[in-house]
Design brief:
By secondary structure, this protein is of the alpha/beta class. It contains 8 helices and 10 strands. A 6-stranded parallel sheet has the order 1-10-7-4-2-3. A 4-stranded mixed sheet has the order 8-5-6-9, sandwiched between helices. 43% of the residues are buried.
Length: 209
């Protein structure tokens, strides 16, 4: 990545991390995907049960592949014959992996969900939640974060899932009530009631959508 962008990201990440700490969450900064993977694996002890929502960023840093090895109990809902059971197992997992659709400079995260399995697990259930967040998802404030989640992340996800929503055709949010909408629940994570539960790894890269 360009040296000037890396310098900017490093400085901005420190601001975000301070914001997270003020909200009872832990933040880390990784200059590369490899560094992000190392930090994540240091946070997850061997033998832990781990599952996830739809987090492309976790795939992109190689974390999902690493956790599918024999040292971890990875609950893979994509391969489960009973997907509902796999989703419910997430609430009792040691670790839940996620990303954020958008995040503010002072550490607030926005997530939009269709089935609510992801946002509900972030809010309650798993012992710990690890977010992998590319610096491309950092926005100035909650209003701009919400706009990014609805107008950038949601249309791209709707398109990649082949859903029949207005944003699939237009590329931007139409505030629809389509049966295929993935904007059913919106979670704003502004504080963690439980210290050491939420960990956010910021990555000096463009990850996810």
């Amino acid at each position: 990545m360009n040296e000037n962008i890396t310098k900017r990201n490093s400085l901005l990440a420190q601001k975000v991390i301070k914001g997270l700490e003020s909200r009872n969450m832990s933040g880390y900064y990784a200059e590369t995907k490899e560094d992000a993977l190392k930090i994540a694996l240091e946070l997850i002890p061997k033998g832990s049960s781990v599952t996830m929502g739809g987090a492309m960023s976790a795939h992109e840093i190689g974390l999902v592949e690493a956790l599918k090895g024999p040292d971890y109990n990875f609950i893979d809902r994509d391969k489960a014959t009973d997907k509902r059971a796999a989703m419910l197992a997430a609430y009792d997992a040691d670790f839940f992996l996620s990303s954020a659709n958008a995040m503010t400079e002072d550490g607030i995260m926005i997530n939009v969900d269709g089935n609510a399995n992801r946002v509900s697990a972030i809010a309650q259930g798993p012992k710990k939640v690890i977010f992998i967040v590319g610096m491309n998802k950092i926005t100035k404030d909650v209003d701009s974060a919400m706009k990014r989640a609805r107008n950038v992340a949601a249309p791209i996800n709707a398109q990649r899932f082949g859903l029949s929503t207005p944003c699939t055709a237009t590329g931007s949010c139409m505030d629809c009530k389509s049966p295929d909408t993935i904007c059913c629940q919106i979670l704003i994570t502004r504080y963690s009631k439980h210290k050491d539960r939420i960990h956010v790894i910021l990555v000096n890269d463009n990850l996810g959508f």
